[in-house]
Amino acid sequence: MARTYERFNLHTTPESFYVEACDYGSDDVLIVDRVSTDIALTVRRDIPPTAAVRPICGIMGTIRLLAGMYLVVITNKKTVGDLLGHAVWKALDFDVVSYAKTVRHLTDKQMQVNRLLLTMIYDVLHTESFYFATDYDLTHTLQRQADARPEFREMSLLERADQRFVWNAHLLREFLARPELHRFACPVMHGFVATKSCCVNGKVFEWNVVSRRSRFRAGVRYYVRGIDAEGHAANFVETEQIVRYNGSKASFVQTRGSIPLYWSQRPNLKYKPKPEISNAVNHLDGLQRHFDSQIALYGKQVILNLMDQSGSEKSLEAAFDDTVSSLANGKVKYVAFDFHKECSRMRWHRLQSLLGAVAPTQDQFGYLLVDGDGNVLLRQEGTFRSSCMDCLDRTNVVQSMLARRSLQAQLQRMGVLRPAGVGQRLEDQADFEATFRNAWADNADACSRQYAGTGALKTDFTRTGRRTHWGLLADGWTSVVRYCKNNFSDGFRQDSIDLFLGNYAVGEEDLTASLLGHHTGAGGGPGSWRLPVLAVAFSMFNVSLLTAGDTWSETLPHALFWGTASVLTVGSVLRAGVVDVPKLVQKENDGKTDH
Fold first, then answer.
1. Model pLDDT for residues 445-468, shown as the tens digit of each residue
2. Helices (H), 421-510
3. Cα angle 394, 463, 334; round to 5
4. For residues 191 and 131, is the Cβ–Cβ distance under 8 A?
5. Could you tell me where the beta strands, DSSP code E, fall in 221-345?
6. Whole-angstrom Cα distance, residue 25 to residue 181?
7. Residues 467, 458 contacting (CB under 8 angstroms)
8. pLDDT tens-digit readout, 403-450
9. How does DSSP classify residue 179?
């Protein structure tokens, strides 16, 4: 596999950008003409000595905004760790550099729009977390790589990458068609990576979690639900758990994604908007396309539907059940588990009943196992596709439990844990258990921030194995923040994602009317001034309760004041009656298409 360059210097002159590859033994330089926008290769001696120079960490690609073309580069990174002996980096900071020397060709309003478009690009870039590697393909599971043809393994990273998970694919479109430029192109994955060196029974092994977020039907919590006409599901994430010991490698893959029907759930200032299921489309056709793709990629499918079977989620859960039962395919199995009902009143032990019910199927699906010589000893024959309304909180709890069960079997087979029947359980290994729980909770937080704008709920259970009253309080605060962001700033976030991914391309049209006066600043929608007031009032209300005095006479005035302030602010929000909606790409109410 042809690796990409790792270190660069960006040289800038009024006419051109020169991206110098600084890896040992390289003389390659990428030259970008700032006038014609042509990109070509040259050598180090062609860099003008008068050019301004600064180090960069990688090239994300190029994008056209109102002022013209821009070069998007990574300016800071940190190492996450080694994944199977390959360095994985997390991109920390970026720069979006204009080809144009001036923006005087724009009117004042056009300059305002261009600044807003730049803010939107930076908004996506600073949504954690973007990862890349220069000599390892982060976008493919170990099993896909093990089954690949020899010619595939010789391809460049950009050429062979799974396009679902290359978040800068639109920015790299000019590079993709030109193989001579591939070593300068950095395929970047959005999701989560944890790499840990662990020890059990005195045996050291590598343990990793990699979550890959799809760029197809990508967006924010309430504005992107269900599937599109191609069968791509909203918030689709492929999560792979990888372990290596004594040269042997094992992998277990799971997926999550929105309920694959045509439905929507638009924010309307209610805490939990009612899901709307379209009556104008054939749900079975869309579902069939989705699962045909999933089966081709992952094998047999078990759907773990964790939605409520009563209340506002009931209609969607029932429609999903009915549509799956009509699938003309024996490779999809449906398992419903009313998570909130079963685990209410702190009865989280009931999750073990779900685990027990699917255990025979998990054993049948197995996992990938490759020996030290590269021979595939076992293959994973199917995957669990977990989902709830958001595919975040409930989903991550269940995925972590399935992952632990698979890891137990893998470590027994590899000889790290004592053989089955001896009674050694992975959860009894205190040091590793803490590492395992925290990594999966961090995974939950990362996926949640990318989709819902906040950390995940229920992570106290993931981190500690117990549901606590403090965890419930923290979830309450997170839910308030989610409500505010989803109603008052997610239109801006959705527009930003659509612009970054190329779902919307800036042309010659006038964007002034659609953007100015709509998004009141970076991520602030109509009425966004109320959000900090509500946040402060609600925070102080909680503080007054948690730091109660010796008597209620001391605590009650503070609690009443801040509680009243919270209620009045909420009332003001409801009276305003407006939410921040996307403007660049109109989302159909049935969730079917984006155009």
1. 999 999 998 888 877 777 777 767
2. 430-451, 459-464, 469-488, 490-501
3. 25
4. yes
5. 237-245, 248-256, 263-264, 276-277, 300-305, 332-336
6. 17
7. yes
8. 999 999 999 999 999 987 677 899 999 999 999 999 999 999 999 999
9. G
